[in-house]
Amino acid sequence: MISSYTEVGRAEQKPVDIRPALSVYEPAGWLAGLAHFISRRATLSAASVSLSLLLFVALTSAVIAQQPSYPLPFPQEPSRPQAAPSAQVLVPDQSGSISANSSWRGVNFPAGQSSIQYQLPSQSEIIADFGVPEERSTAVMRENEFGSYTIPMTSGVDFDIYEWQVLPSEIMYRAYLASQKESRLAAQLVNSTDHDMLWDGFAGGRFGLLRYGNRDPIYPQGMQVDIEGAGLVRLDVYNDVDVQSVDFRAGVPVSFVWGRHQARVGYYHLSSHTGDEFLLKNPTHQRLNYARDVLFLGYGYYLTPEFRMYGEMGWAFYSDVANEWEFQFGVDYSPRFPTGSRGVPFFGIHGHLREELDFGGGLSAQVGWAWKGERGSGIFRTGLHYYNGFSPQYSFFREHEQQIGIGIWYDF
Questions:
Q1: pLDDT digit string (tens) for 252-298?
Q2: Topology adopted by domain 164-411
Q3: Which one of 55, 271, 353, 375 has the fewest CB atoms closer than 10 angstroms to its CB?
Q4: Dihedral sign of CA atoms 103, 104, 106, 109 in order
């Protein structure tokens, strides 16, 4: 049932029933009643729209008339002329005021004959009216014992302050480039003694957990705790790409860097496992449960920003098959600054001696081309690889190998 409506604006309000006009049997009545209803509603809507427009005009006039939070530089004008491209930048004098014949924020000030001076708004007032200006990237000039260098960095960062940092993006004490037992991402395709072709893969990495030090991305200084881990796998390419063995390594190194010097101490676990395919095809092979839990101490010294010499010793407080002591030493040359797309040359020479081999071991060397990106980037390398000594796969640690081949490496 359709309800009736009430006429508005009369002294006596009388309900008008429109139901007879809407009878389904009288179409003309439908139309007449509907037109009468709409005309009444239109009258009410026009009044509402007029009242809304009056309120909008009143509020807009009040907002326009409101003064800003600081004095205007001159009386308001119907339109403010824009400053020419060559207009001066507004600079306050010693009293904190500005003279005429200048411009600020695109507004021209009166001509030079005017003696009026205007007070500059404060920074908080400018931010209240115009918002916080966007930070711009800048190049920061730095200097240390190696010389001067620049860092493209967001302004406002103090590189000299030592502070706690969670998950720092840089590694302070980088991996030994030519070492065969570092946690990294790599693949080496080599021709080895008694094998036509071997594929040595490194699936792992090293990441910063906590640092107390500066924020310099080129020369980080201070103390840093890292975590590392990798699976070092050997595949026999010409023998169905069988897995010969896998060495697993995981550890927690703590690095210290000051000036040209760096040191690291920490713990790592290493265990070696012979591949199932190899054992099935070589049933007479004696499987070894080679394992080490090691405390280590290393030291490095940079002769130049890129050239490092180092040494490290490790003592196993638990070992199976292996003995306690090991020693590592070497030199490497790698980029410290971003290289761009061209890259730079690199090389590394590394020696590793172990007590279970009567302090024999192996010598490895790598040379090639390297690239380093911006802040937080590791070093990507490709080049030639050479190794001579006892096998770096500890399931075969008493077997002598001589390798030559190619490789790609990514050091964190």
A1: 999 999 999 999 999 999 999 999 999 999 999 989 999 999 999 99
A2: Outer membrane phospholipase (ompla); Chain C (2.40.230)
A3: 55
A4: negative
